[in-house]
Every structure is written in C-alpha cells, then in structure tokens.
Amino acid sequence: MSIGGQEIRGKLVTVQMDMPGDIDGILDAVRRIMMMGEIRSIVLRDGEPLTYQRYVRPGEEIKPSESTSSFAELTLMDVVRQIQMEEFSGEGAGGNVNSYLLTMIVNMEFDGWTFTHLLVGEKTRFWEWQGVQPLVSKKLPHFLGARIEREKTLPEDVFIICGAKTRGATIAEVCFALKGNIQ
To answer: For the purposes of burial, counting CB atoms within 10 Å of the CB of 137, is it exposed (0-12), middle (13-18) or buried (19 or more)?
Structure first.
C-alpha cells in the first residue's frame, strides 16, 4: 500500500528535487507529490534535496517534472492563461479602494473559490493603491492570506486574484481568476 492507501504495482523510482526555500514552498512541493499518487516515501532533511519514491506502472513514462535535469514548474501566469478568468466590473464595490478589493474577494468566495494567489506586475501600482509602502511590499510573501506572485508582463494598472478549491492550493491547483483594474 502507498501513502494515501492506494494499492500499488510497478517499478519503484526515486526522484530528487531542490528543497524549496520556505515552509510554504515545502508544503506545496509535498502536496504536489502526494497528488501524483502511488507514493512510497517522502524524505525531508535539512540541507539536502527533497527526495521521494513512487511506483511507476508498467508502460507509464516518468514525467519531465520528475527528472532533476528537466524540472520546470508552471508560473501562475501560465496557469491563468489556461483557466476561466473574468474581469471585475467594479459594480457594487462602492467608491473606495478597500471595498473594491474586498468585493472582488467576496464575489470569488461566494462562487465557491478560495482566494489563494495574488498576481501583480513587477512595476505594479497595486501597493501604492492599497497604501502599502514600497519597501514593505517588496518583501511581502503573502497579502490577505494569499501568496503573492510577480509577473514581468502584467501591466502596472492590472492585478489578478486567483482561486482554488482549497486554501493551501499550489499554482497548478488554481482554477479561477478575477482581473481587477487599479483606478
């Protein structure tokens, strides 16, 4: 039996990947690994790569993400381009900045999505708009409980809030996006 209770058959492979730099990154990596299924073990050791073993069924190929030489993770922008995205009209948000963002989050939550990621441009006006000092905003890993991701190609007056079904979702689990405009 594998971790998670699945019955397993096949060849056992061992995969190593770079240990993420923070606790959230480690939890995201472990979650991604667990979701693959047929996991035999996951090993976390300080100063060493994250290592896991899983069973590969006969005829199944090892994914590129499981090869240390070709490991590449999707960016949030890659995911946003492929999922359902709506543009927030601002209707019913009132006239102030905080009610605009709060109404976006409430609308997303009402539709069954949990606010998990905030996507902003590298030269965004979002922080100024929210009243957050530039020195502080550059070091923030989270905003209102959501992970902050920065994207070079996103215009300075646009931000995107992303949602998933669970609070601790990885980028790959994001299924909904709501585009906002800085006024």
So the answer is: middle
Distance CA 147, CA 116 (A): 6
- Quick one: which of 75, 95, 88, 94 has its CA closest to 179? 88
The whole-angstrom separation of Cα 5 and Cα 132 is 46
H/E run at residue 90: none
CATH 3.30.2320 fits 76-181, yes or no: yes
Question: The whole model's pTM is what?
Answer: 0.62
Q: Are 149 and 75 in contact (CB under 8 A)?
A: yes
pLDDT score of 3: 61
Other beta carbons less than 10 A from residue 21's beta carbon: 8
CA distances from 7 to 38, 39, 62 (A): 8, 10, 19
Domain boundaries, the chain: 11-66, 76-181
pLDDT band at 71 (very low <50, low <70, confident <90, very high): very low
How far apart (Å, rounded) are the C-alpha atoms in residues 116 and 44? Answer: 25
Distance, CA of 1 to CA of 95 (rounded, Å): 57
pLDDT digits (tens, 9 = 90+) for 6-32: 555 667 777 888 888 888 889 988 988
Contact 84, 135 (CB under 8 A): no
CA distance 88 to 139: 27
